[in-house]
Amino acid sequence: MSKNTxxxxxxxxxxxxxxxxxxxxxxxxxxxxASALSQRSGDKQTGAKMExxxxxxxxxxxxxxxxxxxxxxxxxxxxxxx
Length: 82
Fold this sequence. Notes:
Layout: H1 10-21, H2 27-38, H3 48-58, H4 65-76
Helix pairs in contact: 1-2, 2-4, 3-4
């Protein structure tokens, strides 16, 4: 299996940092933000559980645009082959 070398952009990194610092952010948003920040540099990739969570967020109408942006970033860094 090939390795996904994508990293979190600086814009998404800022969004993730703001999300983690906000008391009004949901636990889902904070977990996606933490995942995105952990992939800011280095060779970390999205795990299967986080990939599933991100996919559920993207297909749901109940999450904010910013949460969906974090989910999209996290999902783009997954290494799942279809």
